[in-house]
């Protein structure tokens, strides 16, 4: 397979938007084993290798102990629990448990307040809409970065060009991730932490 074709396949694979839609979340409450199976089935494409776990019983128990997830009711998890677990799963890819707790505490207060108009389902729907657009934007942005790197490496020999290009793409992606992580942390520090 040619280098550019392989890169395009990777871009298409990573840009594929396949998230858990609200309609896919069971309306009936689930036991712990059902929750972990549900996540493994629905988010299997996020695993880097087959041994990875999307969500374990220990993780769920730790989230409850850390008070970023309300405790199960009669050992069952509701649709709201599932939505919160999806949000936590996304947040834990980058943020610490302490930062997640900082974000989740006011969210849980707003959601549990009957007089408030914040709906967890509404918040999640907005998140999915934005995430889908971000996936599409990522593909364009990545191709732009790839073209810039190709242009700057024009004078290198073909055999070393591919490896250097991959290294530069990785470094660029990590830099972008670091910038976005720092921005998220700054937002947490400025709008949530009351120091």
TrEMBL record:
InterPro entries: DUF1836. Pfam families: DUF1836. This is DUF1836 domain-containing protein. The lineage of its organism: Bacteria, Bacillati, Bacillota, Clostridia, Eubacteriales.
């Amino acid at each position: 397979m040619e280098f550019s074709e392989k890169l395009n396949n990777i871009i298409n694979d990573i840009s594929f938007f396949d998230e858990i839609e609200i309609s896919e979340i069971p309306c009936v409450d689930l036991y712990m084993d059902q929750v972990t199976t549900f996540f493994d089935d629905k988010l299997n494409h996020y695993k880097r290798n087959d041994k990875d776990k999307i969500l374990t019983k220990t993780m769920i128990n730790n989230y409850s102990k850390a008070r970023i997830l309300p405790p199960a009711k009669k050992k069952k998890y509701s649709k709201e629990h599932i939505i919160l677990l999806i949000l936590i799963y996304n947040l834990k890819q980058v943020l610490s448990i302490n930062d997640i707790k900082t974000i989740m505490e006011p969210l849980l207060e707003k959601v549990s307040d009957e007089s408030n108009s914040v709906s967890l389902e509404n918040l999640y729907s907005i998140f999915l809409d934005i995430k889908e657009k971000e996936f599409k934007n990522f593909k364009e942005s990545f191709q732009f970065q790839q073209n810039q790197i190709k242009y700057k490496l024009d004078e290198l020999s073909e055999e070393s060009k591919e490896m250097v290009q991959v290294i530069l793409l990785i470094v660029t992606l990590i830099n972008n991730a670091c910038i976005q992580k720092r921005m998220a942390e700054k937002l947490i520090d400025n709008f949530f932490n009351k120091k």
